[in-house]
Write a structure and sequence with these properties.
Order of helices and strands: EHEEEEHEEHHE
CATH superfamily: Electron Transport, Fmn-binding Protein, Chain A
CATH architecture: Roll
Radius of gyration: 17 Å
Number of domains: 1
Length: 157
């Protein structure tokens, strides 16, 4: 990381960023060009890994790309705001907090894990607990993104 003064290494601060953000940008391989898709997510932190769950229709381009190559990059940000530079354009900036990482994506096959992923997603997005059953989980795909290598940084003011 170039800006060590903005680096965040404390896992509790990193989890606060993950808990505050609402959209995960998932980068996939698509031939010559990357393909980035924004996703609502739920998450867990287990054994040093960030695990994100997102849902999807049962077919589509991102699912095809995950099946072809599971290697992904993911990014999320929060606390974005303008820092004024007054009358000097080059003095403007932005506050932010972000996490970026590399890992893998997979389509969850296990019914219990699909239900867990959907439950975490709804809890993170709404703050509420919802009950899911097999019939509710069956028609959707649940994408599990596991980041084993990630970093965070912030500019507060």
């Amino acid at each position: 990381m170039r800006r060590k003064d903005r680096e965040i290494t404390d896992i509790e601060e990193i989890l606060q960023i993950v808990g505050t953000a609402k959209i995960l940008h998932l980068g996939l391989f698509d031939g010559v060009y990357p393909y980035v898709v924004p996703l609502h997510y739920g998450y867990a932190y287990e054994e040093g890994r960030l695990i994100f769950y997102a849902h999807s229709a049962s077919e589509g381009h991102k699912l095809d790309l995950i099946r072809e190559d599971p290697h992904v990059c993911a990014e999320l940000e929060c606390n974005v705001g303008l820092i004024s530079g007054g009358d000097v354009a080059c003095k403007y900036g932005s506050t932010f907090a972000s996490v970026i990482g590399r890992g893998t994506a997979e389509l969850v096959q296990d019914e219990a894990e699909k239900i867990r992923g959907l439950t975490l997603l709804m809890k993170h997005q709404t703050g509420r607990d919802f009950a899911f059953d097999s019939a509710m989980a069956a028609p959707v795909e649940v994408i599990k993104v596991t980041l084993t290598d990630f970093s965070a940084k912030a500019r507060k003011q």
